[in-house]
Specification:
Radius of gyration: 17 Å
Oligomer: single chain
Bound molecules: S-adenosylmethionine
Helix content: 10-25%
Number of helices: 5
Strand order of the largest sheet: 3-2-1-4-5-7-6
């Protein structure tokens, strides 16, 4: 299959698909972390019509999430600039969801109701795929089956504990936190 992994610089999902023999490419405005030649460094909008069979997309969530929404009404007054950024993020999200690609999976945290995104198809957890962490992640699916758990971990750690891998990273902290969990990437490629 010809697979586009949109908004990915880590190569995690791209490589999970390539290992299974798919013609998978990542795309991000950032360069790839692994210097892969199978990466487009550009606005993904410009390559959506390149004949893909499947797209997995990880669009930016900073202004769309429930967590981000607490900054929308500081002192009970709407932060208009933040709201406009959220609406821009929503337009990008919808553009990906409506792309002319037969199979689509969009991944994002739980969205704030303020932006009224379409309902997600399911949510997944790292602990369902071999990692000892909870981090609820929603999937919007088009022509794809629900992702099934591959390896449920019962002994879980909180991602909120200071000093664990999730909170380390100094200047790369934000980048580390945005990376897809390997177990979820592998499950996507397998299923
Ligand atoms: C939440 S991060 C996803 C990271 C991903 N899970 C990974 O493992 O690399 C969102 C990414 O979207 C990228 N991005 C934002 N707008 C984009 C666009 N128009 N075209 C391509 N990538 C874009 C950002 O640079 C950022 O790396």
């Amino acid at each position: 299959m010809k697979v586009l992994v949109a908004c990915e610089y880590s190569g995690t999902v791209r490589e999970a698909f390539r290992k299974l023999g798919h013609d998978a490419w990542s795309c991000d405005i950032l360069p790839p972390d692994d210097n892969s030649e199978f990466h487009y460094q550009c606005d993904v909008s410009s390559i959506l019509n390149n004949g893909w069979d499947l797209m997995i997309a990880h669009p930016p969530c900073t202004y769309l999430t429930n967590a981000g929404a607490v900054h929308l009404y500081p002192k009970k007054v709407l932060n208009e600039e933040r709201y406009l950024k959220g609406m821009e993020a929503k337009r990008f999200f919808i553009k990906l969801l409506k792309a002319d690609i037969p199979k689509i999976c969009i991944e994002n945290p739980i969205p704030s109701k303020v932006f009224a995104l379409p309902p997600y198809s399911q949510f997944v957890q790292p602990f369902e795929h071999g990692h000892p962490f909870s981090k609820k992640t929603c999937l919007w699916l088009k022509n794809l089956p629900i992702l099934k758990p591959t390896n449920i971990v019962t002994d879980r750690q909180s991602t909120k504990i200071a000093g664990n891998w999730f909170n380390k990273g100094g200047k790369d902290r934000q980048k580390n936190r945005a990376k897809t969990f390997q177990g979820i990437a592998d499950a996507m490629a397998q299923q």
